[in-house]
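--- STAGE predict ---
source: upstream dedup step, 1 unique chain passed
mode: sequence only
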Amino acid sequence: MSLFIFLTVVQAIVATLLVTVILMQKSEGGGLGVGGSPTGLMSARGAADFLTRSTAILATLFVVLSIALAVMAVGTTSSRELDTSLERGASPVQSAPVDPLGAAAQPAPGAAPAAAPAAPADPLGSATKQ
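--- STAGE serialize ---
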C-alpha cells in the first residue's frame, strides 16, 4: 500500500510539472511564455525544443503512472463479493392503497347516499354587505 501512496504522490508532482511546462510554452496568442533575450543561455528555439521535449516526456510519464496506479488499484480490490455497505433497506410494501379521506368519503354498498354537504360560509360575506 505504501508503493501505491508513493506513486500517487509522484503522479501529483508530474501533473504539476506538466501543467507548469505547458503554461511556459509560447503559443500564437502569447500565452504565459517566459520572456528574455534571444542571446541568453538558451535561445528561443532551444527553449522551445526543451519545453516540447519535456512536455512529451512528462505526458508519457503521467499516462504510464496512471495505468500503473489503475492496475495496482484493481489488484488490491479484486474480490468477488459485492459491496453492500451503501444498500438501503427496503421499505415495507403496503397491501392496499391508503385512502386519505378515510371511509367517510365512500358510502357503504347498499346504503342511501348521504345528503349534500352544506355550503361553506362565505368568509367575506360581511365585507360585501356594507
